[in-house]
Amino acid sequence: MSSSAPNQNNAQIARRSFLQRLGLLGVAAVAAPALLPTDSNGQITTLKGVSDKHRWGLLIDSSKCAAGCDACVRGCNEEHGISSTGNDDTDAQWIRKIDLKDNLTGQLSSLPMMCQHCDSAPCVDVCPTGASFKRADGVVLVNKHTCIGCRYCVMACPYKARSFIHEPLTDQKSWAPRGQGTVESCTLCVHRIDEDNEQQPACAVACTDEAHSAILFGDLNDPNSDISKAMVERQGLQVRSDFDLNTGVRYTKL
After folding, report:
1. In what order do the strands lie in the sheet with 56-61?
2. Would you tell me which CATH number, out of the four given (3.40.50.300, 2.40.30.10, 3.40.390.10, 3.30.70.20), belongs to the domain 31-252?
3. For the segment 23-34, what is each residue's pLDDT rounded down to a tens digit?
4. Torsion from C-alpha of 194, 120, 21, 3, nearest 10 degrees
5. Structure pTM?
6. In whole angstroms, what is the distance from residue 46 CA to residue 44 CA?
7. 71 by DSSP, 3-state: which?
8. Which residues contact 190 (CB under 8 A, 6 or more apart)?
9. β-strand 108-114 against 95-101: which pairing, if any?
């Protein structure tokens, strides 16, 4: 008994050290002062009033999206405190503009690509700590408390919509917590949703300000919402519908 006790203690110590490195004992892997979105009083907002009654999403009309315009990207970056480090390989991108060409018709399309807020989200399925999660209202987020930066979700996302934060960060915004060594992506401006679900995300506001009005936000579960009506009228389509992910972001005229 006496000889085995030290071995057991050593094993327990080794296991604890291993789990601490993984972040499974609550050791934060980031230096962010707030690791979930908070309101002006410092209260976490990501679960306030969340219900599956709603399914928040975007409808993007690519016929209105102007080639060369990056208003949505700039609006997103300003809203969430994302700035360039001068290294295109490591800069965070919550939204990126892509240009598509139909090989049969030659038709050109320009559109923003961001987290598609999938109902069956691959990033959530592969996350070993549960840091990637989907709220009841369909918004897919990353909990910076438990993200260990393994980047499985980055590899699993078929839309290349997730970024890994390589550099130290300063002057962060309370509603958009970020942290070196963690993964991030579009949040649908969840802080705006939780404050007032009539608000449009920053990308949609910026697009409207540029007089394009190509991005429409709303409740996909409400058949009387503007976005639901537009989905029917304009035939909102999924990018790579063959993946059967039931995305919350849809496009017209792909």
Report:
1. 215-219, 56-61, 249-252
2. 3.30.70.20
3. 433 333 333 333
4. 130
5. 0.80
6. 6
7. helix
8. 37, 45, 46, 135, 139, 141
9. antiparallel
